[in-house]
Design a protein that fits this description.
- The complex is a heterodimer.
- Chain A has 17 helices and no strands.
- By secondary structure, chain A is mostly helical.
- Chain A has one domain: Cytochrome c oxidase-like, subunit I domain (Cytochrome C Oxidase, Chain A, Up-down Bundle), CATH 1.20.210.
- The radius of gyration of chain A is 24 Å and the shape is globular.
- The two termini of chain A are 14 Å apart.
- Chain B has helices at residues 3-8, 22-51, 65-90, 94-124, 149-181, 191-216; strands spanning 134-137, 144-147.
- A two-stranded antiparallel sheet of chain B has the order 1-2.
- In chain B, helix 2 packs antiparallel against helix 5 (149-181), helix 2 (22-51) runs parallel beside helix 6 and helix 3 runs antiparallel to helix 6 (191-216).
- Helices cover 70% and strands 4% of the residues of chain B.
- The relative contact order of chain B is 0.16.
- Chain B contains six helices and two strands, in the order ααααββαα.
- Chain B is elongated and about 55 Å long.
- The longest helix of chain B has 33 residues, at 149-181.
- Chain B is mostly helical.
- Chain B has one domain: Up-down Bundle (Four Helix Bundle (Hemerythrin (Met), subunit A)), CATH 1.20.120.80.
- The chains are: A mainly alpha, B mainly alpha.
- At the A-B interface, helix 5, helix 6 and helix 7 of A face helix 1, helix 2 and helix 5 of B.
Chain lengths: 604, 217
Amino acid sequence: MATAEARVRAEFEPHGGTGIWSWITTVDHKRIAILYYVTSVVFLVLGGIEALIIRLQLAQPNGTVISAETYNQLFTMHGVTMVFLMGMPISVAFFNYLIPLQIGARDVAFPRLNALSYWIFLFGGIFLYSSFLVGQAPNGGWFGYAPLTSKQFTPGLNADFYSLGLQALGVASIMGGVNFITTIINMRAPGMRLMRMPLFTWMSFVTSFLLITALPVLAVALFFLTFDRQWGTNFYQVAAGGDPILWQHLFWMFGHPEVYILILPAFGILSDIIPTFSRKPLFGYAVMVYSGCLIGLISWGVWAHHMFATGLGPIADSFFTISTMIIAIPTGVKIFNWLATMFGGQLRFTTPMLFSIATVGLFTVGGISGVMHAASPADLQQTDTYFVIAHFHYVLVAGTVSAVMAGTYYWFPKVTGRFMSERLGKWNFWLFFIGMNLTFFPMHFIGLLGMPRRTFTYSPDLHVTNLNLSATIGAFILAIAFLLLIVNVLISRRNGAPASHNPWGAATLEWATSSPPPEYNFGRIPVIHNREPLWLPGKEEVVEAAQARPGAIHMPPPSFWPFFTAIGIVGTFALFLTGHWWAPLIGVAWTAIGIVNWAYEPTH
Amino acid sequence: MSQAAALTYPDRRPMPGMGVYNMKLGMWVFLLSEVMFFSGLIGSYVILRFAHPTAYPPPGTVLNVPLTAFNTFVLICSSVSMVKAFAAIEAGDQKGLRTFLLATTALGILFLSIQGVEYTKLASEGMLPMASLYHAVGRHGGTAVLGGPLYGATFYTLTGFHGAHVTIGVLCLIFTSIRAFRGRYTQENHGGIEIMGLYWHFVDLVWIILFTIVYLI
């Protein structure tokens, strides 16, 4: 890229088109980000509808809205959807859009691999949801505990959809992780040292490492499950010498880093938004980076706190209690640094800032209940009750989702060149805030009063009827809040107030280029001298370079083969459902055709 | 850091980064995820095996250690020839590149063939992944050896995933060899050979661990 300037010959020729074919073949990270975002929101709606049905069933004791079997499928698919089809991909949408723009690159390191990740995610999601068509959606919880998922206890295809679908999604995540790590290490603009990168990119970096190390462990667990179910091996069958606790260890060795895969991007979003609307540089930048790295590192040593009830023994319990409590320290550091950033700043309470402040506060509530059941004796009371549900919805809805909403309002002007409506945004925020607390705060008490998770109904004698009704009402308010977000995006896309290249007066590099950014991102790659290139002296040069007329920039051409190959990869897993040992080979052959064509496709 | 100093500070390298091209760095990162995959497999094997010591026959009673030791030797040799192929193209030696790539491919295929022979033999003796119990005739003498149902499952899963990696490696080696014969790699530009080598050496390394833990211990 540095040499591109030297041999400016002609004007940049964009890879044009806006039709559906241009979206199928696109390798532009910004377009792929939009695909990720829209798909994730669709899955958010699906997972949300599942949650609403669950809440309707639980609004009154002895509910009869749905059967126990349907309830099992709904809470399982709600969890799987919100973790794998909404939480992770919506973060990846932000990774895709922002990482190259924040580090001064023209695209990710492997643009076609990036497209492949997206298509595998999409087809994997469709595959998982196709299980509803045959009435056999996964029904063993999102953690699919053995031996519940064995042929004996789940004779249908439910657990097969689960294991094969997640396997495909894992492939997509690993590819994404490889891509982002390579991009962040290798594609930075001159002067963009690691310790000058925006915090969002830093947290994406840590998250990508978690992706590539955690997902393979899940793959192992799922392969064992698949073999048990398809070929009659006995990895999780106690009677044959297998070990169901092995599943729990493998699953949570993936599952706990997964929690930080979901929350670290949100931390990154907050760390970019709060300085902008406080007009102050982030307080303790270096410590924020280190604490993020530390959270990623420690997240590998806490998995068994999900398993206190299995009886690991006092030594293991003590170890995991302590390690889990230690992870609260770097998290607390982040909370205090956000507060210190706001302290004494010129606060502007725009919608993204409101969402950010709410996230800091509400995430802390979830964090505190997390420390409560980090203590293994207390956990034995709380595990498998609604208290745990309250905890992780406070960290994932009030943490991840709220930060994603903040990020949506914040970066929408960059993506579209238009602001989202602030009036609708305030409504959106307050409905979200009220709905969120009304839904999940009562669950703390529901849990402490003894109502177990994953049970399709409850008795009036439990005295949790009013609390449950409140949660149901809250859930519908929350649903309206999400609807408002979608409505706001749709309206503002065409009718929002026009936004300049840096409408919020932010400090980071993505705001230097025009809104929306051109396909090549930066006319010339700017030279970076500090952490706040748009605040500190030299900002004019950065903006001028970013918006310069492009020379003969080479951008990777569109490619059909990622789409084609993704069909083969997901098809390979899907064809296991047929029960014929040779059927997946069709998918393998299809994938091979895709890979060969991919390899021979000219990229210049 | 004072601002004036920051502005005039010359950035010594034109682009930050590790000085490693994208494909190579990507392969490193991918191999990190492979390390976690095989760690998961090997860790599970250790847990299952040491929880049920009696389900696993002593080393050498069921599995043919000398044959697999030879196979390990074959795979290590293929790593050597891969290194030689890379060294050849570093020196601009096209003929050496082609010779050693073909040698690596052939050794890879030999490894898979021997593994195929081993699998066939074991399966004919009744050792299958889903077998509930496995009675093998001891390799040294007539007494039957009893293997638990997990014995076959873990054996085929661990060695099978490795075999799948070697198979993919061999396919890539064939692809690389075809390109080498068309003269697509030069002394200046041979990233493909380097990342092929990284993958191949990794697969070899995994096998040395698997051989030790599955066959010898």
